[in-house]
Structures are given as C-alpha cells and as structure tokens.
Prior knowledge:
By secondary structure, the chain is of the alpha/beta class. The chain is built from nine helices and 15 strands. β13 (about 260-265) and β14 form a beta hairpin. NADP nicotinamide-adenine-dinucleotide phosphate binds near residues 15, 41, 74, 171 and 178.
Amino acid sequence: MTKAVRWGVVGTGRIAQTFASDLAPLAEGEVVAVGSRTAEAAEAFARRFGVARHYAGYEALCEDPGVDCVYVATPHPFHRDHALLALSRGKPVLVEKAFTMTADEARDVVAAARRSGLFAMEAMWTRFLPHVRTLRERVAAGVLGEVVLLVADHGKWFARDATSRLFAPELGGGALLDLGVYPVSFASMLLGPPSSVRSMVTTAFTGVDATTSILLGHPSGAQAVLTCTSSARSATRASVVGTETRLEVEGDFYAPSAFSIVARDGTLLERVEGPVVGRGLQFQALEVARCLEAGLTESPVMPLDETVSIMATMERALGGASSG
Ligand SMILES: NC(=O)c1ccc[n+]([C@@H]2O[C@H](COP(=O)([O-])OP(=O)(O)OC[C@H]3O[C@@H](n4cnc5c(N)ncnc54)[C@H](OP(=O)(O)O)[C@@H]3O)[C@@H](O)[C@H]2O)c1
C-alpha cells in the first residue's frame, strides 16, 4: 500500500473542511496539522477533524517537520504566495483551483517547484474521479471517432453579497475562475490547448464576471462551447461529440457522476457510473500520495504546463471578451 501522506492544511474554510472529512477514512493520507489566520479558527478546525497540531499563521504550519505536503485552501488571490511559502520551506504543494489569478502567477509557482525539485499540483479533483478517469480512457481509445465538439456548462446561483468570495474583487471574485475553470479544464483534458479563444462576459454588480461564455478552437478543427454563471443554476452537464458516437456526462459533470455513450442512431451503447463515498476530494489526495511515493514532481494526470495553459485560456477569455 502507498505510504500515508501527512497533510498540512492552509486555511480553515469550506473546502479545507471538506478535504479533511473526505480524507478521514483514507489510509493513504491524514491531516496532521492546520494553519489559520487566527488561533481560534485553527484550534476549532483541529478539534472538529481530530487534527494533531494547529497553528496561528501559515508560516508555522509550513515549517512543521511532521508535514509531508501542504494543501493550499485559501481564496485564489493568495494561492501564489501561500504555495511559494510552502515550497520555500521544502514542502510539496496541492493548490486549490483556480491555481492562481493569472498565468504569470501560475508560472511563478511552477518555476519555484521545478527549481526546488518539489512536487506541485492544481487541486483539479474532477480529473481523479472514477467516471472522469474512465471517460478519458474511452476518448483516448477512439470510441468517439474524431472529436468534433465539446459542450460543458457550470452555473450556480449565489445570493448578491458584495463580501462573498464569488463577487468580491479582492477575494478573486468572478464566475470564470471559480466555476468556469471546470469546463475549461475539461476541454483542455480532452482537446488539449486551444488555438483560438472567443468570449462574452456579463458583469456582476461588483464588476467581476457573472456570466462568461467561451468558444475554443483547436488545431484538429474541434470546437468547445463552454459557459459558466454565478447568477443561475444550470444543468452542469458536459457532452463530447465525435464522428462515431457521443459521450454525455450527467450533471454535475465535474463532481461524482455518470456518463453514457450513445451511437449516431441514438442507441445507448454504454452507461458508466462512478459511485463515490463522500464529496470525492480523496481521489486527488490518492494521486498526490502515488506521485510522492514514486518520486514524481508533477502528476501526469494534471501536469503543471497544462495548469498554466488553463490559466492562460481563462485570462484570454476575460481579457478579450465582448460584453454581454
Ligand atoms: N475543489 C472544490 O470543489 C472547491 C470548492 C470550493 C472552493 N474551492 C477553492 O478553494 C479555495 C477556497 O474556497 P472556500 O470556498 O473554501 O473559501 P472560504 O470558505 O472563504 O475559505 C477560505 C479560507 O481561506 C483563509 N483566508 C486567508 N486569507 C483570507 C482572506 N483575506 N479572506 C478570506 N479568507 C482568507 C481563511 O481561513 P483562516 O481564516 O482559517 O486562515 C478562510 O476560511 C478557492 O480558491 C476556491 O476556488 C474549491
């Protein structure tokens, strides 16, 4: 069995809590330390999730010699600095999505990890879910024929709250970096980097993007149609349409789900379900454990250059958008 990774968690918010509870039943990983901006929040997190050590401040956490890998679970504007902090203390990092705010920030983290020979990975947990691993295999095996079109959407409704992470510019607000990163990453996984990016953005009351639609063109001729919004709950489905068959992923496509492969005449050829215990964050932790044990400095499933490319696509979509 893979050696258990001793995790240190930076931040005590929503996703840090989900990570801790998804890891609890796992033999290959254990949260052994947590760092927070405040001693109270660190202590409360440690008590709730049975974490051995808690620190006021992220630096102390990153210096804990009993931590093998640091999980950065703060809002995206802080990912770069918190990842660099962990790397500077000799710790491998798993960094929440969106990996950073910009492609340049992502390059900074990647360069630091490579310079120090330490493992780093974007916490794009979707890639490691059973149904996504299987659908990736089907596409690679050519079951779809030539991929012509990919469609994916991620819409969630959030209450108008200027202090919310989804809307506050200083917390990295905006639908694309938070929600749209899933469709963009899904397209990148199956089609590679785009050769052209077109987009339209409707802004929210705080000026950040609320609804963003993206058209991607690829050297193969394949196109992707990707949408995200923080103003409405969409079906959050994805489909990949090939010359021979199409693959339909049920909503929520980015979370534990199921997919079907359908022939041109509408015949259902296969349906794959990927039942998962908990929310599903444990699969990315298993990948980190596997990579660390194998001495890898990045995951072949979520490579660092691809993370930078995904950030660059989102940057192009926001930078070159028409207004809706
Ligand atoms: N993988 C997923 O499914 C998923 C889901 C949700 C979010 N995320 C990602 O995870 C990251 C955190 O999201 P979240 O929903 O967990 O956010 P959250 O609930 O607001 O928690 C963020 C935590 O970061 C720390 N923090 C440090 N500086 C902060 C600042 N200036 N303002 C607010 N918090 C600050 C805080 O912990 P302390 O005060 O204890 O230091 C806070 O509890 C985001 O990048 C997001 O995109 C991923």
